[in-house]
Amino acid sequence: MQRTPTRRSFLVTAGATGATGLAGCLGGTDGGDAGDGADGTATPTAPDETPTGTTTGTPIPGESSLLLNWKPSGLHVPYFAAKANGFYEEEGLTLSTIETGEGSTFSAKQAGLGNTDFAISSSDQVLNVNSRDLSPLSVGVVMQKSPAVVFSTRDTFGEELSDVEALAGKTVGTGPGMVRMLTTLLLEEAGIREDVEMVDTGYDTVQQLLSGKIDAAGGVFGDAISAEAQGYTVDSIPVADTIPAYGHVVTVNRDWAAANDEAVRAFLRATARGAAWAHRRPGDATELLVEANGVLAESREQQRQKWETLAQEFMLGDAVEQNGWGWSEAEPWQVSHDALADADALGGEVDPTAVWTNDYLDTDSPYIGSYTDQL
Fold first, then answer.
1. How far is CA 249 from the centre of its chain?
2. 68-101, pLDDT tens digit by residue?
3. Where are the strands (E) in the chain, listed by range?
4. Fold (CATH) for 18-145+246-374
5. What is the pTM of this model?
6. Among residues 310, 128, 317, 131, which one has the least CA distance to residue 241?
7. Distance between alpha carbon 75 and the CA centroid of its chain, in Å?
8. What is the number of H-type helices and E-type strands within the chain?
9. Radius of gyration of the chain (CA)
10. Which strand ranges, in their side-by-side order, compose the sheet holding 216-220?
């Protein structure tokens, strides 16, 4: 199958499309194949460790690259695990580089412009950029649940934060963007929005919480892990337990994907396999991440905790159990669309059913259709 060439130079002027940088895009504010895992605990052998291969049975011509939504972290373990273990190559796909991103807005725009084959973005930014004359397409959901959480420390809150209602009469700080919108929806759903003072803490939310300037924070679970790493006891309430919304998604240019069907399918199969491998071996998987990104060596335990939290609490769900890894359903996209529209954060009309597809997910692959059986 002949692949369509892709422009490789990133357009610094991509912002001319008019897509607003919703700074709260859901990526956080911080930026061996068998046997025992690195932590010494027994890990089961996968039922099938043989590659599924391309439908043509031949290598896919050309090279591809992956653009992350932000700096590499524990949230990106599946891609580094899949690359280091040769899973992309076994699927016939040459993934030459995994590149640091500049935010989910930037990643969605680069996919829409055709400047990268694969990009990790967020559901809200796929919607946002689609409302502004570009057409990035989500082909797989990595985070079945939004990573947004409301959290506090016992020192600051004075007691355990066990339910949303306990926030009545308190001050909650968040940065701008989707995290703020979802936090607002959570408070409204609990019927206490009018009883909570919400303040904009910009990109200093965690430190303002730790210093006692706010009672609780709206952020992502990586922020709560960062606070824990500083020695605090942290309680978190996942927004996704109440408000259905997606987090990270795999994004492509829709025209490129239509012309390179096998490459997209191969990427998704290998990534799902990488996620399953890393789920069973979190210690080994974190080491592969650190080997590829030496700057993370000092925070390897935080990165491992981020990955384990993502793998166990945010990557799974009913849609994965019933249909397979990466599966999209309509409701979370509609919820995100409505939140953006209510906040006047879209550039124009966008159909939330038209920005995603499940068509490239090979449910016959055990790592897609039977993902939970591989864990």
1. 6
2. 999 999 999 999 999 999 999 999 999 999 999 9
3. 64-67, 95-99, 118-122, 136-141, 148-153, 171-174, 197-200, 216-220, 234-238, 248-253
4. D-Maltodextrin-Binding Protein; domain 2 (3.40.190)
5. 0.85
6. 317
7. 7
8. 15, 10
9. 20
10. 197-200, 171-174, 216-220, 148-153, 234-238
Which residues are within 8 A (CB) of 344 and not within 5 positions of it... i.e. 6 or more apart? Answer: none
Strand partners, 45: none
Cα 19 to Cα 135: distance, rounded to the nearest angstrom: 12
In the block, which residue shows the tokens 């650190």?
A: 290
Cα(214)–Cα(208) distance, integer angstroms: 6
Burial grade of 8 (CB within 10 A; 0-12, 13-18, 19 or more): exposed
Contact between 69 and 107 (Cβ < 8 Å): yes
Residue 187, CB-side half-sphere exposure with 13 Å CA sphere: 26
148-241, which class in CATH? alpha beta
Q: Parallel, antiparallel, or unpaired: how do β-strands 64-67 and 118-122 relate?
A: parallel
CA distance 94 to 267: 9
Residue 153 tokens, joined: 């420390």
Enumerate the β-bridge partners of residue 248.
122
Give, rounded to a whole angstrom, the gap between the first and last alpha carbons of the chain. Answer: 33
Task: Say if residues 241 and 344 touch (Cβ distance below 8 Å).
Answer: no
Q: pLDDT (tens digit, 9 = 90+) per residue, 313-335?
A: 999 999 999 999 999 999 999 99
Query: Do 18-145+246-374 and 148-241 show the same overall fold?
Result: yes
Q: Where are the domains of the chain?
A: 18-145+246-374, 148-241
